[in-house]
Design brief:
Length: about 675
């Protein structure tokens, strides 16, 4: 193929040239960044060089909640001495402004997760009402479990005898009750009671049990309007309600209903990184978050009809792959390979081999449309709430009632575009093997007791010290930091110190690209205790638990540990910590906050938008630990970051009186014999 110059030279005005090695630690990404520079195509890595963030915004103390602002309250050089006199025009203090901004981020994140969940609940209701036969209930065990959590009866009394209730009735009532969680007029979030009893009681005492999902988000927008809530503590109380409504509500329902409709994940093998794309295949990349779209595309792309059609057009087949959380959803249920993380979406197009990128919602950069214009790639938006202004973008509205036709149209469009490739194809030859798909149930299967069917073995190994503790490491990439460096350094340091890692989102993809999601990696990267457990049970030291909404699986896994016994009565009592080393989205703040108020010590990398309001910062760190047993923390250096988590884990081991067990288990054979 003759290489054509890209149609649009995007870098003509570019001042600085990005250093690919400084931008990413991933070789495949480095190759594509270099390629972008050669072709004169601008990416996020270039813009991160030429545009610096606003220093006051970074501190969290810029308010633009009314047109008298923006009121900007930077922290004076040398900090505050004496009384903090800083005020906006209306008198809002730095604490009020930072808290308002912070809870608005929680609202944004909780809304994104929860609206995703609502979309799934609506499809589930359409299935229950038999308005569509394109989606079906796949996991009846999960359905019955969820029905139980939502208070839906699964049996009825007939002639004095308890008999199974009609399944169609259970499905319909479960769907109606589930959807009601977003806007019911009275009562409280039903899933709050899935937390350990002690946690539920604590939330009750603090007055933070959500009433319904939507209301808590709306109330944040009201309270943060000029002249409403001007007490950072009261604002955070509402932020807490909304975050619980996300983690234990919208996100948890999204995960559960997706499992019911599409199947609960069990371990599958696959591959990760840009190298999963194939030059001689039609490459269709699905990017975004909702499996409602991707499930149907996976089904259609696998049909004989489409494969034959692709062959007729000169391709050897159809290669599907995913970016961001759609990638995690398709991986955990179908073994579809991961193409890349958030920061690789433009790079996948720069391979010249992406025939179509289909997107739905969240984390989709508008610049993919500009990059796609330099190639033959078609960018297809599918969601009514997520369109792009560029004329080159095609919108095919995806709807559960005609999902099959929509999916066929999209797959066919990608196939038809195969013959239009113009630029030289350059796919980086880097990919890594992956074992993914560890839901709460499969962790129980692998690390549970064969008789008790609980997390008994996991608890036992924590108590005996082979596993020092558990960490949930999650979240995005951030172009202000080196791509994947923080993710991998934190995770490697944790597993080296015998901390089992549960991962979701873009951290999961970063770990996958590094080969950390394989059982074999245990021998290479883990401390002796964790390596022994992984080798015995045959699991990776980093367990892939899915997408962003699947952080709810981490909450439930943490609850199962409490239920299995021996490690305290609440999530805050056992050795567990959370981390988002490269976060950037509002969703990450909502996740971080529901981790914290669920009792998890949670460290964020990059920055926290609280540094301009030290009193508020201290409140969500130190004071929150006293109130909720979990707290926020921030550390940019990944090794220090990991060791702050390990120190917390060790503190909890000591409080439980199991710190000595670990010292014994890590002694080598000779030392034990000497002791004997
Ligand atoms: Fe300034 Fe107050 Fe308006 Fe915010 S709400 S922009 S602090 S006047
Ligand atoms: S996709 S929210 S960049 S994890 Fe869920 Fe990745 Fe963060 Fe999006």
């Amino acid at each position: 193929m003759v290489e054509e110059k890209p149609k649009v030279a995007k870098l003509e005005k570019k001042k600085k040239v990005v250093d690919p090695v400084a931008a990413s630690i991933d070789v495949a990404s480095q190759e594509m960044i270099t390629r972008a520079t050669e072709l004169g195509i601008e990416t996020i890595f270039d813009r991160a060089l030429s545009m610096k963030p606003c220093n006051i915004g970074v501190q969290g103390t810029c308010c633009k909640n009314c047109s008298m602002g923006p009121c900007r309250l930077p922290l004076p050089k040398g900090g505050i001495e004496g009384k903090d006199e800083r005020k906006g025009l209306c008198g809002a203090t730095a604490n009020t402004i930072a808290a308002r901004n912070f809870v608005r981020m929680i609202a944004g994140g909780a809304a994104a997760h929860s609206d995703h969940g609502r979309g799934v609940a609506e499809v589930f209701l359409a299935v229950a009402r038999k308005e569509t036969d394109l989606y079906k209930v796949k996991d009846f065990d999960k359905l019955l479990a969820v029905a139980g959590h939502l208070g839906v009866a699964t049996t009825v009394e007939v002639d004095g005898e308890e008999v199974d209730r009609d399944m169609d009735e259970i499905v319909l009532e479960t769907a109606e009750v589930a959807l009601g969680e977003w806007g019911k007029t009275e009562g409280e979030l039903l899933y709050a009671k899935r937390a350990p009893e002690a946690r539920y009681e604590l939330w009750k005492k603090q007055g933070v049990i959500p009433r319904n999902i939507d209301r808590e988000i709306v109330e944040i927008m009201h309270r943060t309007h000029i002249g409403v809530d001007q007490d950072y503590k009261n604002l955070m109380k509402q932020g807490t309600r909304a975050a619980i409504a996300d983690g234990w509500g919208g996100s948890m329902l999204a995960t559960d209903l997706q499992d019911i409709l599409f199947g609960t994940p069990y371990p599958v093998q696959s591959e990760a990184n840009l190298g999963v794309m194939k030059e001689d295949h039609v490459n269709l990349i699905i990017h975004g978050h909702e499996p409602i779209l991707s499930e149907m595309i996976v089904a259609v792309a696998d049909t004989e009809e489409m494969i034959e059609y692709a062959k007729k057009k000169g391709a050897k087949g159809i290669q599907l792959s995913g970016i961001c959380c759609t990638a995690n959803e398709m991986l955990q249920r179908h073994g579809v390979p991961l193409c890349g993380t958030f920061l690789q979406q433009e790079l996948a197009i720069i391979t010249g081999a992406c025939d179509a990128m289909v997107v739905d919602i969240q984390c989709i950069m508008q610049n993919i449309a500009n990059v796609a214009e330099c190639f033959h790639t078609k960018v297809i938006t599918t969601h009514p709430i997520a369109k792009m202004e560029q004329e080159s973008v095609i919108h095919i509205e995806f709807d559960e009632h005609h999902a099959l036709e929509d999916a066929k149209r999209i797959v066919k469009m990608a196939i038809d575009n195969f013959e239009n490739r113009k630029a030289e194809v350059m796919i980086p030859q880097h990919k890594a093997p992956v074992v993914a798909g560890f839901g709460v149930e499969s962790v129980e299967y692998h690390l549970g007791g064969s008789f008790r069917g609980t997390y008994y073995t996991l608890n036992d190994n924590i108590i005996n010290g082979r596993i020092r503790g558990v960490a949930g490491v999650v979240g995005c990439n951030n172009a202000r930091t080196r791509h994947n460096e923080g993710h991998l350094a934190v995770v490697k340091e944790l597993i080296k110190n015998d901390v089992l890692v549960l991962t979701t989102g873009c951290n999961a993809i970063a770990c996958a690209m590094e080969g950390l999601l394989t059982p074999e990696s245990a021998a290479v990267f883990c401390g002796p205790g964790l390596a022994e457990v992984c080798e015995t049970v045959g699991i990776p030291p980093v367990l892939h638990l899915g997408s962003c909404v699947d952080n709810s699986r981490i909450l439930l896994a943490a609850t199962e540990v409490v239920k299995a016994g021996g490690l305290g009565n609440d999530i805050s009592e056992w050795p567990v910590a959370g981390s988002a080393p490269e976060w950037m989205s509002e969703k990450a703040i909502s996740i971080g906050h529901y981790f914290v108020v669920s009792g998890v010590y949670t460290v964020f990398g990059v920055t926290l938008p609280t540094s301009g309001a030290p009193v508020f910062h201290d409140y969500i760190t130190k004071e929150f630990e006293k109130m909720y047993g979990g707290m926020w923390d921030v550390e940019i250096d990944p090794i220090k970051h990991a060791h702050m988590m390990i120190a917390h884990i060790d503190k909890k081991r000591k409080e439980l009186g199991i710190d000595k067990a670990r010292e014994r288990v890590l002694m080598d054979m000779q030392s034990r014999q000497e002791m004997g």
